[in-house]
């Protein structure tokens, strides 16, 4: 059984009200077992066995930044983003994980979700954000490059095994503009 997130300490980062309802971006600052299971199940639905499990998620909530996208007063998670600090460049965040549920894709939610996260990360003192993306994922590449302004800085061959090539992309958060 799923419980509402309202009883947990959290920060509403931004409202994304629109045709889909009262959608909010939450920075997860604490968790209970129910929320942890919902996030892990979302990850499994999107990424199959490559999704993050409880063992990886708990340290990310405690020491990184975990954002979820969901309708206010609803239990279903629509999107997730997990970020961590780069150890070599302290003003750089790394987007470890980003996904929007299949049935919500193509509605600009991914753009608005990630844009609000970028603004929040910049407000936390970060100047750059890096990510990797599958070279055969034109939708994600379009979002990152054409809509948000990420630049491809290199291609990493066989990143997750033979034939799993990734683009390494970077965004200058200082020049990112707020949406009206």
TrEMBL record:
Protein name, entry field: Acetyltransferase
Keyword Transferase: yes
Keyword check for GTP-binding: no
CDD domains: NAT_SF (cd04301)
Occurrences of domain N-acetyltransferase (ranges): 26-174
Recorded GO MF terms: acyltransferase activity, transferring groups other than amino-acyl groups
Organism of provenance: Desulfosporosinus orientis (strain ATCC 19365 / DSM 765 / NCIMB 8382 / VKM B-1628 / Singapore I) (Desulfotomaculum orientis)
Record key words, sorted: Transferase
């Amino acid at each position: 059984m799923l419980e509402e997130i309202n009883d947990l300490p959290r920060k509403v980062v931004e409202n994304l009200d629109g045709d889909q309802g009262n959608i909010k971006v939450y920075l997860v600052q604490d968790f209970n077992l129910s929320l942890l299971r919902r996030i892990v199940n979302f990850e499994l639905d999107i990424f199959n066995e490559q999704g993050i499990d409880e063992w990886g998620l708990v340290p990310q909530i405690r020491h990184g930044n975990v954002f979820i996208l969901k309708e206010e007063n609803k239990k279903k998670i629509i999107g997730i983003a997990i970020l961590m600090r780069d150890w070599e460049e302290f003003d750089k965040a790394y987007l470890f994980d980003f996904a929007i549920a299949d049935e919500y894709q193509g509605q600009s939610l991914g753009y608005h979700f990630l844009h609000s996260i970028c603004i929040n990360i910049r407000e936390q003192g970060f100047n750059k954000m890096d990510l990797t993306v599958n070279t055969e994922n034109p939708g994600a590449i379009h979002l990152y490059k054409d809509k948000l302004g990420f630049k491809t800085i290199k291609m990493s061959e066989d990143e997750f095994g033979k034939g799993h090539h990734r683009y390494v992309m970077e965004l200058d958060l200082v020049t990112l503009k707020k949406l009206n």
